[in-house]
Amino acid sequence: MKIPFPFAAIVGQDDMKLALLLVAIDRTIGGVMVFGDRGTGKSTAVRSLAALLPPMQVVSGCRFNYPPAAAGNCGQSCDEEARSHCHDVDTGAVPVVDLPLGATEDRVVGALDIERALTRGEKGFEPGLLARAHRGFLYIDEVNLLEDHLVDLLLDAAASGENIVEREGLSVKHPARFVLVGSGNPEEGELRPQLLDRFGLSVEVRTPSDLAERIEILRRCDAFERDPQTFLAHWGPRNQEIRELIVRARERLETVEVDDAGLEAMSRLCVATGADGLRGELTLMRAARAAAALENVPRVDDRHIRRVAPMALRHRLRRDPLDETGSVVRIERAMAEVMDA
Amino acid sequence: MTSPVLSPERPVQPPESAGDGIGQDARDADRWQDALAAAALFAVDPVGLRGLVVSDGPGPVRDRWFRHLEQLLPPDRPVRRLPAATADDRLIGSIDLTATLATGRPVLQKGVLAEADGGIVVIPMAERLSSGTAARIATVLDRQEVALEREGLAERLPARIGIVAFDESAGPDEAMAPSLLDRCAFLIGLGGLSLRRLPAPLPDRSALEAARARLAVQPPPAAEVIEALVITGASLGIGPVTAPLLALRAAAAAAALAGRDAVTIEDARLAVRLVLAPRARMIPEDMPEPEPDADPQTPEDHRPDTPPPDNAGPPEPPPTAEWAEILLAAARAARPEGLVNRVTGDSSLRHPSRQSGGGSVGTVPTGGRPAGTRMGTPRSGARLALVDTIRAAAPWQALRRSERRRAGGDVPDDRILFHRTDFRIQRLVRRRESTIVFCVDASGSTAFHRLAEAKGAVELVLAQAYVSRTAVALVVFRGQTADLLLPPTRSLPRARSLLAKLPGGGGTPLAAGIDLAVLTALAERARGKDPLIMLLTDGRANISRDGVARRPGAQEDAMEAARHVARNRVDAIFIDTAPRPRAEGRLLAEAMAARYVALPYVDAERVRDVALTAMSQRAALSQRAASPAGDR
Questions:
Q1: What is the C-alpha to C-alpha distance for residues A5 and A47, in angstroms, rounded to an integer?
Q2: Residue B466 and residue A192: Cβ atoms within 8 Å?
């Protein structure tokens, strides 16, 4: 209903923008958590992401967003009507699905379709947000305020990549592989550690302190509010360029090399910061590769590692409450140790 | 044409004659005028200006002000009240029971936010909004629509609204949710105004209508307006960029209301007075360097496109600088003393005052959070989960109908047949959240060490806050008084910023410390939390309740305060920090009905372990007590 602000017109906030681009390039990085003050454009940036994503191919009319390859053997029992288009292919936008606060469980995981049951006496499954977000992005604003039982459902689905529904006599299983994007203000409540762990990258946005930047923000917000269409048209070409960057980076991603020295630097970095386990290393490697692909260079080098290490590792450090040092500082210290040697 | 309400020309001399009656009257009149002006601007553009926060309890002045606002709004616009404890079904929307059953398919009943589309939502006792509710409202203000994903319904409903929030908080520790405060353009205070002395406002609805029409075709603001507002905001130390943006919209509304085609300096002055001044965190005395607050973060500045005009650096060309100076002068003149900490909404700025632990003692509806549904009958307070009940019944309808007909019954087709086994009830999990009130003796020579360890314990507990669902408060006593150094919080970052400076030394006003800890604990209990007091002291008081150094009296006062803990049945743990524990400690612990733990060498982890063990024991106890009764 409301036109999203164009991504290209977002002033500053380079970390957040880069993190979003990286997960758009490589979904396996596993999502972004954006922490930050109110009014820093967190949700604006996430919502603007949809316009950047290259379209995807999907089975026509499919409520589970299956790719064309899965047509006919998806194992779902859709009704005749829904099934009639199963062998057509649509090119559609990659879903960026909003999970609003106050959502109920039945809408998140899906449930019995009441209308069908009442009017036709049929037992049918009405897919929820998890199905809608399959192959796309699931965005939760104020994720730290989300009810616990919903967080549990999300963790389950995010870990297994599928959604299993056993309720009201239904037994449904469908894939739910989505990139989780969250935003929130840590002052309003902590994020559950298990959930934080599901995010590949985490960035912190701050209110810009540079006057020129603040003036530019105000100018663009005002222009956008006055006339969104014109504003959009003005920024359209820039947005298109970014979209092409993503497409090109995706094509290149497979061929980007990480040499042994780079791999070693990354694992030493993880050891030095105490970032837990394999997940940190893997995320760091994938993020660095996506960064190199975005730059259109064939090989990951130190710059890429340095650029992405804070966002890949800062939420994985073991927390020492008595150490006042921010996690980013700790990572930087480790980088100086490991990489400048 | 010009509305009488809107004159930034009002003499803005600084109130030098503070204290005498005439100066007070003039200031009151100013405040009233500001409140009316804010109402008028809000009525021009409620959606753009988002909201109005009025800090004052209910009363005739507030009523008159609100009536004035209502008369400025078009008569057909909905005005909806939103009680602070509104649940999601009424806030966001839910399934309409009657209509759903009548038609046999899910019918939506809008929530308050969507019902108010095109109008305003009034929130009394806005300080009572939970952060979750505040976040839901804030999202709707931003998006101008309600995203509903509930009970089998998925809808986007338009909700172009502005809010009027009545902040009736009594103390600084129960202020309104910052997420909403930051989004509302106007923060006005009506407290202390007397109806008799205030001129009656003259609402002019037609002027407002004309203004709305004019606003719709207003050309973009001149570059200087935007620049000057940003500079002014930064000079006043206002963090969020949303504040100057709201000021810009207020200026646009002011221009439209004054019958002008474009924003002038007068409009900007009014906007600064009403939007920026109340949020000011600092007031530069003279024209400042337009340098924003010293944030160490230096953004690498490569904006890709539309380079801002060359005047972006500190040396501004004359018009902007001139504008900024005028605007800053307006802010300086406008800023009412004492408002600043109250309404900035910046938690790190809320400095706890001495008696702030009290808060207001009232009961909060403690229903618990919804946690799915389960089979069961809706009796004795259990809430029927309608949608799930219908879902359970739905697959059987054809069967039941034919069964009933075979048995000779008459069943209309539009009737749903329920069996007892269909009923689903709402499962509510009431996880009693706990608050640990650390009460720490910061007197004498060991103060620094003891405080540092207490602070460590606070942070250690908070580090596990999510898992243990525990909030932490810190009361510190030394010298003559006790202070609530850290109001109850679950946020580690917030605790850090508040604990940064630690006072210590001086006498031991033990009674005052215990009193404040009890007050804080009771306030937490009133909010539905389970308080636990952890007192860290060597038990030797030397400052009595009236602040006089007098050992025997002080000790007696402390015992009295300790008995108060027991009388209120607040759980407590007494940690004796004396190098050689003496009788006083044990006596106090007994009087408090507290567990006694001697820790001559206090260290943060031991304290944390004691606290968490106590919490988990308590949780186990309450679970055992609750389980035979089942869910509630």
A1: 8
A2: yes
B105, closest residue in chain A (CA to CA):
A115
Give residue-wise pLDDT tens across range B449-499: 777 777 787 777 777 665 666 788 888 888 888 888 888 887 777 777 777
Query: pLDDT per residue over A327-340, tens digit each?
Result: 788 888 888 888 87
Provide, as residue numbers in chain A, all residues whose Cβ is less than 8 Å from the Cβ of B242.
38-39
The whole-angstrom separation of Cα A154 and Cα B369 is 18
Could you read off the pLDDT of B88-146 as tens digits, one per residue?
889 999 888 778 777 777 889 999 999 999 999 999 999 888 888 999 999 999 999 99
Q: Which two tokens stand for residue B222?
A: 């001149």
- Residue corresponding to tokens 């939506």: B108
The alpha carbon of B475 is separated from its chain's Cα centroid by a whole number of angstroms, namely: 22
What pLDDT does residue A22 have? Answer: 96
Where along chain A do its domains lie? 14-55+93-205, 260-339
Q: Residues B371, B502: contact at Cβ < 8 Å?
A: no
CA distance B363 to chain A (A): 22
Cross-sheet strand order for the sheet of B481-489: B481-489, B470-478, B434-441, B530-537, B571-576, B595-598
Domains of chain B, CATH where assigned? 20-84+114-200 (3.40.50.300), 204-291+316-344 (no CATH), 376-428 (no CATH), 434-628 (3.40.50.410)
Mutate to test the interface with A, among B391, B421, B499 (most CBs of A within 10 A): B391
Query: Would you say residue B382 has pLDDT above 70?
Result: no
B2-44 pLDDT, tens digit per residue, is 444 444 444 444 444 444 455 777 778 888 989 999 999 999 9
Rounded CA-CA distance B77/B120 in Å is 8
DSSP 3-state of B145: strand
Catalytic residues of A: 279
pLDDT at B569: 87
d(CA B483, CA B513): 8
Q: Is A87 an interface residue toward B (CB < 8 Å)?
A: no
- Taking each helix axis as running N to C, give the angle between helix A302-313 and helix A277-295, from 0 to 180 degrees, rounded to the nearest 10: 130
Mean per-residue pLDDT, B372-378 = 69
Which pairs with CB-CB distance under 8 Å and at least 24 residues apart come from A62-65? A62/A86, A63/A127, A63/A131, A64/A127, A64/A131, A64/A134, A64/A174, A64/A175, A65/A95, A65/A131, A65/A132, A65/A134, A65/A135, A65/A136
Closest among A230, A105, A237 to A165, alpha carbons compared: A105
d(CA B540, CA B526): 31
Query: For residue A9, which residues of chain B lie inside 8 Å, CB to CB?
Result: 305
How confident is the model at residue B12, as a pLDDT?
Answer: 40
What's the fold here for domain A260-339? Helicase, Ruva Protein; domain 3 (1.10.8)
Q: Are strands B162-167 and B120-123 parallel, antiparallel or unpaired?
A: parallel
CA distances from B406 to B413, B420, B478 (A): 15, 20, 83
The answer to whether the CB atoms of B244 and A206 lie below 8 A apart is no
Residues 6+ apart with CB under 8 A from B241: A39, A40, A207, A208, A214, A217, A218
Mean pLDDT on B296-304: 40
CATH class label, A14-55+93-205: alpha beta
ipTM of this complex = 0.90
Q: Which residues contact A230 (CB under 8 A, 6 or more apart)?
A: none
Band (pLDDT 50/70/90 cuts) for residue B306 is very low
Considering only alpha carbons, which residue of chain B is nearest residue A168?
B392
Q: Report d(CA B573, CA B576) in Å as an integer.
A: 10
* Residue (of A340, A183, A184, A201) closest to A275 by Cα position: A201
> Which of A10, A170, A187 to probe the B interface (max B CBs under 10 A)?
A187
Q: What is the 3-state secondary structure (H, E, C) of B42-67?
A: HHHCHHHHCEEEEECCCCHHHHHHHH
